[in-house]
Amino acid sequence: MGDAPVRTPRPRRRAGAAETAEALARSRAAGFQQLTEQLSRALTPADIGRLTATTAAAFIGADGCAAYARRDGEDVLEALHVSGFPGDLPRRFARVSLHRGRPMSDAVLSGEPVWLEDAGQWHARYPEMAPYGVSEGHEATACLPLRVEDRDLGAVVFSFYRPRPFDHDEREFLLAVAALCAQALDRAHLYAAEHEARAAAERERDRMAFLARASRLMEAPLSVEERLRQFADLAVPAIADWSAVHLVRGSRVEKVAVAHPDPAKLELVEELERRYPRTADEHDSAVDVARSGVPVVLPEVPDELLTAAAVDATHLELIRGLGMRSVIVVPLVVRGRSLGALTLVHAESGERFGVEDLTFVGQLAATAAVALDNAALYEQQRLVARTLQSALLPGELPTVPGVSCAGRYRPPSPDLTEVFVGGDLYDVHEDPERGRWALTVADVCGKGPEAAALTALVRHTIAAEVRHGLGPAAVLQRLNAAMRRQQGDTRARFATVAHGALTVDPDGVTITLVNGGHPPGLVLRGDRVAWVDVPGTLVGVYPDIDLTETEVRLAPGDLLLLYTDGVTEARGRDGFFGPERLADLVASFAGASADEVVDGVLAAVSDFQDGRLRDDVALLAVTAQ
Amino acid sequence: MTDSGALLRVDRTSHPDRTELALHGELDNDTLPIAQDQVAAAEADDPPCLVLDLTRLEYVDSCGVRLVLLAQHGAGEAGRRLAVRLGHGRTRRMFDVLGITGRLEVLDADEAP
């Protein structure tokens, strides 16, 4: 700050007293104006202190000055600025404890100035402090409290090489200068408080924005691990220099993410872990917090802690290399259970975590914990769905002598449906007593648990009725009755079923086929395709259903393909897959095995929808050998 | 989640002898509940005959069949006639394959029930 020097009016000798007094009053008025201007431009307590100890001191003709600030309610004064005092006095009196019986303390504690006009008064009134007060030829001292209303802001000490009679006018003058400094100091405090409040509000706003970003990330369609990795990345350097996430996995606690903006630092962590793998009994705050659910704040990481944790000198060097200064570890708690821990570390930023940060970091951890919990529930649901789905399909098709069978099932793409249990099924059952094999492809309309329950009913009813020796039409009649019983009054869930009884003879295979409202099957003979169009009513709704049994003969090499409408109703950019495209496709598989045909059809249907199936697909192909 | 509201529209026309619901857009698992609500609302007026017009749908899968079967069930319970317009395209073929065209009162485009 380029402050203009304030002219220093010296009290003159008695000659021309009235004239001199007038000149003095004028120059003092000008000096006040300048000091006021300079003080009004100063923003911080340090600036005010400096101006008080330099400009104001020069203005009043002091040879030494020290300005002190008192923090709210503390019994300590801290020097803002000291000038004109010899030797190590400034350092020695940088911090002064309030102590009655010392001039500045008395001024501060009583709120009344202490005037010492010469060395004699010093020795008489403050013998203990006199050696400092009058060192290096200082004589007079004025200790003035800095107060604004009831706010106790500190004190200012003006010291003079000559004895100085502090008469009434002189006292008024010095007190007026001190009051000016006190007001400026008060304003600077208010400004600092406001600045701090604004900074705190901005910090709070930034934290809220960060929480919002973290929440959005937690909803992103990513795996749990990837989400937590990105979560850790998001935290640095926004709110910490290092971040790590640990998860409780059974009896173990595993680190799933660690982040630092500098890749070299991350390599250091890898090296550390490679060279000094953690042992089970070792103390680790992230692991402890993940297990206990109790957060830990270490505002300072003392070097002794690192020394104690280090196995040897190299280890210590590596740990020190991380530069950890301050650490906060909070558990990832949801529904009273700790799922892991979030660790944030301040290192090279030099910032500190305190207990006051627990709320924010705790909120952050809660965001991650809820997302983790949801992901776990979702995984669980998928597991139930997968388990249920596998119960609806045969693990492996039975071996039918003289026939190759191949079945495939593909659920819709996970991104197009919610947790899915399909309604399509294929199966091959043996009727050993009659030497027959039953083929089934069925599609229960709808999806979800109700559809799954009906699908299970379809599968098990058919298996049971086949073993009872019923023919294909009778099996579907029984199934129709069973579905109607199961559904009660709301009979809108139906199934379409293609079902056949297969017998093998030396010249080939005969299949007696019925069709309960199902898309027609296809027979491939050489490269010619024929539809097996058998009329029939869907199953599970009407009390009576129309079914016609038709015989399909397969010579060696011939193939019968049954499928669900997930094939023909598949929609792609070119419209519907449709029966014609299917017939052409199957014709192109002349000479192929049953496995090749079902794989080929599945691939074509998938490609047709750009790899994303909207509906599930079941396929069953049989070839006579 | 798709905004299924935009994918299916149901227009309702009341005649002295019947209420017609004409479905536009896509009728699938996502939009079935909307169609069901509309059918239920029409049924609540207790018309002598309810006509479901599926000819203007751009897409319909087995959920369209469920809608018709539910309406048929409701009509049977209430002693009401139910008729459907299926046109001559994919929708009609689907009902044919399912073997239920013969079990429904099927109307041609402008044919009155």
From TrEMBL, chain A:
The organism's place on the tree of life at top rank: Bacteria
Phytochrome chromophore attachment site domain mapped to chain residues: 307-367
TM stretches of this protein: none
Short name of any one Pfam family annotated for the protein: GAF_2
Keyword Hydrolase: yes
Signal peptide: none
Keyword Hydrolase tagged: yes
Listed SUPFAM superfamilies: GAF domain-like (SSF55781), PP2C-like (SSF81606)
Keyword annotations: Hydrolase
Name assigned to this protein: Phytochrome chromophore attachment site domain-containing protein
Top-level taxonomy: Bacteria, Bacillati, Actinomycetota, Actinomycetes, Pseudonocardiales
Automatic annotation (TrEMBL), chain B:
InterPro entries referenced in this protein's UniProt entry, alphabetically: MlaB-like_STAS, STAS_dom, STAS_dom_sf
Pfam family, one: STAS_2
SUPFAM superfamilies the record matches: SpoIIaa-like (SSF52091)
CDD domains: STAS_anti-anti-sigma_factors (cd07043)
Every STAS domain range: 8-113
Classification via PROSITE patterns: STAS
Protein name stated in the entry: STAS domain-containing protein
Organism: Actinomycetospora straminea
